[in-house]
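[Protein data]
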Amino acid sequence: MKKELKILLLAFCFSSFAFSMLSPIYAIFVEEIGGGILEASYAIAIFTFSSGVLIYLVSRLEDKVKHLEYLLSLGYLVNAIAFLSYVFVSKPVHLYFVEILFGIGIAVLSPVFDGLYSKNLDKGKYVSEWGDWEALGYLIGSLSALSGGFLTAKFGFKTLFLVMFFLSLVAFLISLTLIPSSRKDIKLAKLKK
């Protein structure tokens, strides 16, 4: 497995762990901020709709970008900010704005991740290396669902959101290692002029 693929998988693991911590208890959080079944449904619908529309639009633009690694890092950063934003949610309407922010993060991140992942697959191992990604997603999902529930039961939602933010920030920092140092040096040299 190529080094780039390992880095992509590692960043994905941290991000996916953060994302899946809230999934099984999302409706409970919505109820805690004064919402109910409909508000939870609205929030998920807003996230999925904004993600879908923006993925369609953004992916067309991303095809024209030369260095996708920057966009990958940007997507992880936007998601980290969205996780931190949960701390400040006190009403369902605030949650809707956070879900739009997540939609933006996913729209930037998801197509770029898939493109970079596909680009770095080893010839003859396409199925098994995509299988690695799939397996990790499910295994991390099960562990993070339990962790999120336990953490929230013991310390509350704010602590959960801070842990999710930290994990997604780690994903962002890991993704930065995909940016070759020569590009960093060129960019810094241009900024100094």
